[in-house]
Write a structure and sequence with these properties.
The protein is α/β, with parallel strands linked by helices. The protein is built from 11 helices and 13 strands. Strands 1-3-2-4-5-6-12 form a 7-stranded mixed β-sheet, sandwiched between helices. The protein has a 6-stranded mixed β-sheet with strand order 8-7-9-10-11-13, with helices on both faces. β2, α1 and β3 form a beta-alpha-beta unit.
């Protein structure tokens, strides 16, 4: 058998301390150090502790580490966990990983809505569950919010996309463009990838503002890029004219919204995704149930909503 090397960092919880590997619930996540995934980890850890189960968390360096994810998956399979929940870097890697795990008798699941129950079934894989935000819907919500806060029939919009090949990034951009064109048919949309990076987004936006000084809205597929874009907008003194909207609802973005540097962020509630991944995993292991699809809420966090502090979903914003 080919030897696979585990390259990802592992955060290990053990309740009770005498638990064996056969009692593990394994979670393979992306982007170590990214605030979004930090919140997912918190949701997994706290919920696993509350239910007295052992959660093993593996995190990759970034969203594009396809080979690293496959190597990590094969190493996890050798440990024979009760459940393997995966946030796939690409559909191909995700399906390969889940198919091998399922063939070895491990319950398998999707996190972050990267591989649907139907897509997995078409490949002969029966997911216990798929939990996460609907990234296409996130894009649509951002577009609807743009319609609410703008009145121009010939609006110019700049879209900052994530890394090429990223499933969530592509869906967020596609959903936004499709809905905005329905709501504002004459809209002018320019798109560019900033690869989820704040500095790249800052530079891309700075260049764009020189070419398109009359842009009215900037939509970024994550908050890090939105914060970079907001810096560029502030540097040219156009915070009042240009609306900047991000995705994720991370702490830095919420602070920027409350301070007026960012217009809004469509929150994904990653803590809730981690929490539900554990709860659905426990249920699946106990009952053998498969085919559950759960789409988590994605509230739009703007200044009035954050200041009111009335929305019950805010308890999951981390």
């Amino acid at each position: 058998m080919k030897n696979y090397i585990l390259l990802a960092a592992c955060l290990v919880l053990a309740w009770p301390s005498h638990a064996h590997s056969s009692e593990e619930y394994a979670f393979i996540l992306k982007s170590r150090g990214n605030p979004y995934w930090t919140a997912v980890v918190d949701g997994i850890q706290e919920t696993a502790k509350a239910h007295n189960v052992q959660a093993i968390i593996h995190q990759l360096e970034n969203d594009r580490a396809a080979e690293e994810q496959l190597n990590t998956c094969m190493s996890v399979i050798e440990r024979k966990p009760k459940l393997l929940a995966l946030s796939a870097v690409t559909p191909a890697v995700g399906l390969q990983c889940l198919k091998k795990a399922a063939a070895d008798g491990i319950a398998v699941a999707d996190m972050d809505a990267n591989i649907s129950v139907a897509d997995a079934k078409a490949e002969g894989i029966f997911l216990a569950y798929s939990v996460g935000s609907d990234n296409f819907l996130i894009g649509e919500k951002a577009a609807q919010y743009v319609k609410e806060i703008t009145s121009s029939a010939k609006l110019k919009v700049f879209v900052l996309e994530g890394a090429a090949g990223s499933i969530p990034g592509q869906k967020r951009a596609d959903g936004f463009r499709a809905m905005l064109k329905k709501l504002i048919p004459a809209v002018n949309i320019t798109s560019l990838s900033a690869e989820w990076d704040r500095l790249k987004a800052l530079n891309a936006t700075t260049d764009l503002l020189q070419r398109m000084p009359d842009v009215g809205v900037i939509y970024a597929a994550n908050d890090m890029m939105a914060l970079g874009a907001a810096e560029a907008v502030r540097s040219v003194g156009k915070m009042e004219q240009i609306k900047v909207i991000g995705v994720d609802g991370i702490a830095d973005a919420r602070k920027a919204v409350q301070e007026g540097r960012l217009t809004a962020s469509v929150a994904q509630l990653p803590y809730l995704i981690g929490k539900r991944a554990v709860e659905l995993g426990i249920e699946a292991v106990k009952t053998g149930k498969t085919g559950v699809t759960e789409i988590t809420a994605t509230p739009v966090l703007d200044k009035p909503m954050l200041e009111a502090k009335k929305d019950p979903l805010l308890q999951y914003v981390r």
